[in-house]
Amino acid sequence: MRSLLLNLLVCIFRFKVSHSEKNTFVNVTVQWYFYHELETIEQETVASFDNVKKIIPDEEPVSVTIHGSIPILYEKSIFEVPNLVSLDLFNVSLEEIKPGAFENLPLLEKLILSGNKLTEIKTDTFVDLNVTYIDLSSNSIILLQPRAFKNFNASYLLLDNNKLTEFPSGVFDNVTLGNLSLTNNRLHTIAPKALSTVRFRILNLPGNKLEEINPEVFDLQDLTTLNLDSNSVKLLRPGDLRNLPELDELSLVENQLKEIPEGVFNNTKLNDLNLDANKIAKIASGAFDDMKDLVSLRIDFNNLTQWDNNWLGGESRDRFISIHFNQITEIPDDAFKNIPSAFAIHLQGNKIRKISPKAFHQLEDVIDFDLANNEIDRWDLDFLGNTSLDILNLRGNKLECVEGDLQTVFRNVGIIKLMDNPWNEECTKKIEEFLENKNAFLG
């Protein structure tokens, strides 16, 4: 299918008159394309104009891009353009939008205002718009006034890379959003109920300064995805998620968490929980109990020293469990009794040296079991028992040999990775013979 760029109809207007309040567009270049025309190019020179409607044809849906300097969008500058589908005002030095600049745009789907110099969004700036996408990212916005968004419906509202330190109440009035993104602002405060008046499903808040998950702030009955990466959350409390009944994805990467207590995640609908790159040294035995929908749990790059065989109690399902690059030294008896089968269990990059003879006894089958880059120097004949593994990764440990017949030791393993171990000469020969009949990799 030919790109829309090949269907470009470009009309270029150059205006060389001084600026007045009536005429928003002075000394700018305007480009547009129709969806159904093929490589038809027109060019025309026009003095100046106060409303986009005056200079674009109205026969069929049109997408408009404006280049140049537009310090202010005055009232009705984008007004009653019934065929306007997309408007791109990226990097036009825009400093202010007057209320009423955007009105009566029934087909508008995309509005791009990123890369400008906006410092505030005033009351009644975005009123009665029903769009797919509004991009206000990479401005210098420090203030959102009450009812900045009123009778407003959008699938995506992007306010990333601005300078907001707080999100006050009343910004949204009769608003529906699918996705609100506030990445890389300076938010340390969100007013209680400021967001709860809006029904939306995805909230992105990475790169801010939030210190907690306050249930009065995160009272979002329809929210399914919450991203709080790279904030300053230090403490999780029982009940923090009680007002997020539909939440199935939570990411808290690169915060300041040191402990995970019981009562935070239990009996939630979480499907994907990411706690990577915190300072977690302690997880309560029951912290992940009764999480019947949990599929992916990641706790990589933390400070855990122990594997608790009581984790993940309750109803079980195949899961992806990753706790690599922690400080775990031992795999205890019945370590996996609550996860008898799993997509993957990743424990690479720890300090595991000791594996209990009964560590795997209640583990039935795993697609990918990764113990690479630990300190394992012994692998007993009966470690795996009847456990079935599609892939077993033992590379980068301290194994000099594996005792016993390798066909028996790894009888229920599909692929074995054995590279980067200090194999002695006798064991190397034994493994080479084993390689003839097995998918194994020896370094």
What does this structure look like?
With 443 residues, the chain is mainly beta. Among the domains are: 210-223 and 231-292; 304-443, Leucine-rich repeat, LRR (right-handed beta-alpha superhelix), CATH 3.80.10.10. Helix content is 3%, strand content 26%. The protein is built from 2 helices and 31 strands. The strands form 7 sheets. It has a 19-stranded mixed beta sheet that branches. Strands 3-6 form a two-stranded parallel ribbon. It has a two-stranded parallel ribbon with strand order 4-7. Helix 1 (406-409) links the parallel strand 29 (388-393) and strand 30. It starts with 28 loop residues before the first strand and ends with a strand.
Query: Which outline best applies?
Result: elongated
Rg result: 29 Å
Kindly, what is the distance between the CA atoms of the first and last residues, rounded to a whole number of angstroms?
48 Å
Largest sheet: number of strands, sense, barrel closure: 19 strands, mixed
What low-confidence regions span 5 or more consecutive residues with pLDDT below 50? 1-20, 38-44
Share of residues in strands? 25-35%
Label the structural class: mainly beta
Q: What would CATH call the homologous superfamily of one domain?
A: Ribonuclease Inhibitor
Amount of helix: under 10%
Per DSSP E runs of 2 or more residues, the count of β-strands stands at 31
CATH architecture of one domain: Alpha-Beta Horseshoe
- Give the C-level CATH assignment of one domain: Alpha Beta
CATH fold group of one domain: Leucine-rich repeat, LRR (right-handed beta-alpha superhelix)
* Tally of DSSP helical segments: 2
The overall pLDDT, averaged over residues, is 90
Keywords: Leucine-rich repeat, Repeat, Signal
InterPro entries: Leu-rich_rpt (IPR001611), Leu-rich_rpt_typical-subtyp (IPR003591), LRR_dom_sf (IPR032675), LRR_TM_domain-containing (IPR050541)
